[in-house]
């Protein structure tokens, strides 16, 4: 039977491990470096927005992210994870664990977040979750879809339940969700049929990236993101019939917190009941290996290998979403790992990786077939 409540110590330890292997920095670590920075204020422009529990969590995260005074960009995106569980404090009744890609506008970022949440769900429930995905498009798409739904409900007024029609007068998306949940509108228009050219390209890129990284998913025409903070793709993770995680792009929301320089953003929120007294601090030993990858082929390999490294307990860290080699090397230098594991396009095609001893600069070519075993021998 699926566990309904998870010890907070376990949740925090597993979140730390997922963050390390998939390349997400804890927000707490960034905040610690930025002590003395200005305190962010809650934007007045959010007062008119309707926020669900997932949106609430993302807003709370962005408010804290403001404090560190960093500006993500496509050249230097920031991949960060955050939780309301803190060492030395009692467990929260509802634990929230979030993974965010800030500044990144490629399908790679969405895929890494989805894979991180899949790994977290598998670790906690010992079961592979079902990933359901859809796209609501950009503002242009949503406006067009709302008009299409309005026309649909008017034409079907004589055959639809009264409650559905009442909802349609206030919110056509709410009415669409009701109609799908009660199987009373099989021919309901799908949002993907209304996608703008830009939104369609983004969604196709994501589906292609999921397939190339062998990430299982289902298209879900009944999955909708309402409210004005979400845009383009949305997804959920289910264990049985229970939703354990939700995610979406939310670039429009960053405009409220960073009005002069908004950026692309994707986030995923995992929520579950937790329990425990004072939460223990998670030990963070220095990783032996820092995985550096260059090019799409290597990135796709790194996404698939992350779970293998974690299962084998190889002491490795990587930053999958960071595409710049210079930035990856800077981050590797900061961690002071004794070894670099390097994969470029040539290595990805050949099925190999280069192991570099940072002290001697000696390099060894390792085949991927026996990579885990060779790294464990070195560790």
Report a brief summary of the structure:
The chain has helices at residues 8-22, 27-33, 53-66, 107-125, 139-155, 162-170, 172-181, 197-212, 251-257, 296-311, 325-335, 345-350, 371-378; strands spanning 5-7, 25-26, 78-83, 94-102, 130-135, 218-219, 231-239, 242-249, 265-275, 289-293, 316-318, 339-343, 352-357, 363-367.
Question: What descriptive keywords fit this protein?
Answer:
alpha/beta, Rossmann fold, BirA Bifunctional Protein, domain 2, 3 domains, 379 residues, nine-stranded mixed β-sheet, five-stranded mixed β-sheet
Detailed description of the structure:
The chain is α/β, with parallel strands linked by helices and 379 residues long. The protein folds into three domains: 5-136 and 196-275, Bira Bifunctional Protein, Domain 2 (BirA Bifunctional Protein, domain 2, 2-Layer Sandwich); 139-192, no CATH class; 289-378, Rossmann fold. Helix content is 41%, strand content 21%. Strands 1, 2, 3, 4, 5, 6, 7, 8 and 9 form a nine-stranded mixed β-sheet that branches. A five-stranded mixed β-sheet has the order 11-10-12-13-14, sandwiched between helices. Strand 7 (231-239) and strand 8 (242-249) form a beta hairpin. Helix 4 (107-125) crosses helix 8 and helix 4 runs parallel beside helix 10. The longest helix has 19 residues, at 107-125. It starts with a strand and ends with a helix.
């Amino acid at each position: 039977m699926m566990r309904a409540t998870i010890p907070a110590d376990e949740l925090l330890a597993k979140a730390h491990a997922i963050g390390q292997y998939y390349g997400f920095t804890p927000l707490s670590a960034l905040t610690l470096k930025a002590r003395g920075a200005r305190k962010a204020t809650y934007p007045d422009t959010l007062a008119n927005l309707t926020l669900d529990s997932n949106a609430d969590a993302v807003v709370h995260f962005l408010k804290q992210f403001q404090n560190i005074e960093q500006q993500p960009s496509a050249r230097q995106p920031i991949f960060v994870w955050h939780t309301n569980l803190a060492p030395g404090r009692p467990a929260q009744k509802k634990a929230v664990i979030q993974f965010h890609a800030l500044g990144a506008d490629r399908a790679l970022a969405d895929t890494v977040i989805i894979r991180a949440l899949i790994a977290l769900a598998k670790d906690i429930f010992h079961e592979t979750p079902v990933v359901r995905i859809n796209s609501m498009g950009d503002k242009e798409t949503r406006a067009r879809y709302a008009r299409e739904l309005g026309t649909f409900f008017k034409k079907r007024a004589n055959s639809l339940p009264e409650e559905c029609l009442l909802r349609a007068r206030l919110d056509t998306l709410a009415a669409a969700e009701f109609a799908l949940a009660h199987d009373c509108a099989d021919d309901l228009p799908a949002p993907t049929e209304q996608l703008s050219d830009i939104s369609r390209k983004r969604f196709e890129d994501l589906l292609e990236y999921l397939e190339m990284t062998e990430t299982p998913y289902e298209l879900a025409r009944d999955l909708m993101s309402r409210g004005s903070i979400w845009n383009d793709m949305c997804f959920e993770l289910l264990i049985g019939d229970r939703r354990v995680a939700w995610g979406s792009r939310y670039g429009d929301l960053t405009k409220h917190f960073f009005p002069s320089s908004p950026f692309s953003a994707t986030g995923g929120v995992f929520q579950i009941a937790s329990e425990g007294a004072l939460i223990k601090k998670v030990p963070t030993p220095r990783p032996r290996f820092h995985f550096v990858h260059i090019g799409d082929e290597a990135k796709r390999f790194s996404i698939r290998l992350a779970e293998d490294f974690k299962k084998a307990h190889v002491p490795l860290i990587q930053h999958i979403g960071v595409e710049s080699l210079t930035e990856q090397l800077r981050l590797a230098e900061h961690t002071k790992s004794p070894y670099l594991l390097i994969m470029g396009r040539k290595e990805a095609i050949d099925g190999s990786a280069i192991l570099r001893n940072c002290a001697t600069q000696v390099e060894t070519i390792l085949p991927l077939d026996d990579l885990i075993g060779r790294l464990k021998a070195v560790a």
